[in-house]
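ok posting inputs for the 2-(butylsulfanyl)adenosine job
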Amino acid sequence: MPSSPIQNKINSLRAQIEEHNYRYYVLDAPTISDEAYDQLFQELLRLEEEHPNLKSPLSPTQKVGGAPLDKFSKVRHTQPMLSLQNVYNPEEFLAFFERWQESLGDSFSILGEPKFDGLAVELIYKKGVLTLASTRGDGEVGEDVTANVKTIRSIPLHLRGTFPDTLEVRGEIILPKEDFKQLNLERSRLGEPLFANPRNAAAGSIRQLDPKVAAQRKLDFFPHGVAITSGLPIKTQSDLVNAFSSWGLRVHHFSKVLRTAREVESFFAEMENQRESLPFEIDGIVLKVNAFKDQNELGFVARSPRWAVAYKFKAQEGITTLIDVVFQVGRTGVITPVAVLDPVWVGGVEVKRAGLHNEDQIRELDLKRGDQVVVKRAGDVIPDVVSVITQKRTGKEKTITFPKKCPACESLLHRNAGEAAHRCLNMACPARLAEGIKHFCSKRAMNIEGLGDKWIDLLLAEKLITHFSSLYDLDKKELLTLDRQGDKSAQKLIDAIAKSKTTRLDRFIFALGIPLVGERTAELLATHFGSLDRFLNASEEELLRVEEIGPTVSLKIREFLEEKRNISEIKRLIQKGVDPQWESHSADHSQPLLGKTFVITGTLPTLSRDEAADLIRRHGGKVTGSVSKQTHFLVVGSEAGSKLDKAQSLGVPLLDERSLKALIEGDD
Ligand code: IVH
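and the output
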């Protein structure tokens, strides 16, 4: 049947869009603008709507999700999907390695890879077309999740290049950390149960019956193997990585060929070091004997291959008893429940407390005093309670009730409709005051050196301070009455307080602790208004004109500025000599870095990272935490880690400290 002009047009759009998907999601190197891409996509959607007979399950429009399903059907894997044996320390790994040596002699190599913390799936391509995607299930039988898998942007619907007739790719579906955070934020806003970790979120998303929901979940996929290696024109696991890439699958650049147990140890250390800064979660490394011939020789034992092993990082999770839940009052009045735990070692750190977010989380976890709980450390933040081991209940556990009154000032707590947080609304609440003062003095706010939380608690307890401005009334004599205080350190503190009077407008605005006004917003406000007076007199209208500030934030700022007590406190600060200035951003000052996004990595020769970030922001640039296609420059110091690799793979230009300064001074 000759194809109609419409069919030809549709075919051409599909091919173009697939090509752009590949460039964007697999190569991380788009060649058209988002707008131009959207236009192509919308046009294809429109043509498919107008000509439903020309719709196709292999159209890139499937990436937004097809029709919902009633249930998932079962799929029997052609080859069982096995699991890996785990090792946890050098001795255990060495035992594995020596067994390899016994069978293979000394001339084998190993491919080291990250162990992705996601869920295993199999993708079957027939004649290059994605025909079936299934979960691992029990290893023999999984579920058909093709409709959801098709929505994953980096999974091609058609393979590229030359490929075998049938290809069964196995790999891991993951949800990047940042997308996991966003997803949970959104769910907490909507009052929906939170996912415990990215792995659960990825699994939950793939087991969604509505592919449109899965499509919104920013899932990603990394291939790590094939069901059958015989018949492939390649001989090693590391060639397979290149083959994946040639077939249009996304590969990461962390694989490394290793030859000795020592090299394995340093790869392990390298990956463990990078773990926190990677955009996705990994829980160890996987080591695979590289040559397929050697793999076949080693074969399998029970449900695991003998030719591969997972070398796991130290557990970031631990199990312990929940002794109590205490309720802390934050500076904005939000009440945060904190779990008090029987101390437990998790990933090399003793954990005594863990975060619980809010009342909903306590309810969702069905947490009771005395429960055995799983705590997890994620990054350097305080650990989270992720689940309760209900099987271990004895019946003696006690229900936890969220307080009705503020634990510090006893005023009634409020919960706004649609918000998960309970708040103390009393501006004079001593706990809020203490947190507010700690924030005011902190490094990124007024930066009063030496005046840490312990000091502030002591000064408050002794009634030597009561609010921000009273800090500037402190004198040395008063400080000396505190028994642990020597003359020299008292003087140092007084000097540091005096020094903080000369400050920048953005820091001052941030220090005030206006709800929803973080560092970035404070900076935008300072840039826009240029002086404290103009900021204090800002109308609603004017506030809405500030870049990136919407109605919610502007309302919070208005509320803050309309409160008489706040204005008198600001006036008192000014009277005592606090003098926030904003010269570098005055209208005639050029902003050489305007519109440019920077990421900083490694140790710079003279500037700390905070200082470098400050410098960039003051000259109009933006600083973010991770390298992406949107990054304009990576500022690199010594001992740079994975950010450097990522920047290089994306072709992001690099700057050292000197060239950053040169860029600012405009003489590069
Ligand atoms: S190779 C025989 N490589 O870990 C299985 N697996 O316990 C060979 N995994 O279900 C798997 N990252 O889903 C391999 N780089 C990696 C991996 C990886 C994560 C998962 C995989 C498997 C589980 C094994």
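notes: Residues 38 and 51 are 20 Å apart (CA to CA). The pocket of 2-(butylsulfanyl)adenosine is lined by residues 82-84, 113, 115-116, 120, 136, 172, 224-225, 286, 305, 308, 310 (CB under 6 Å).
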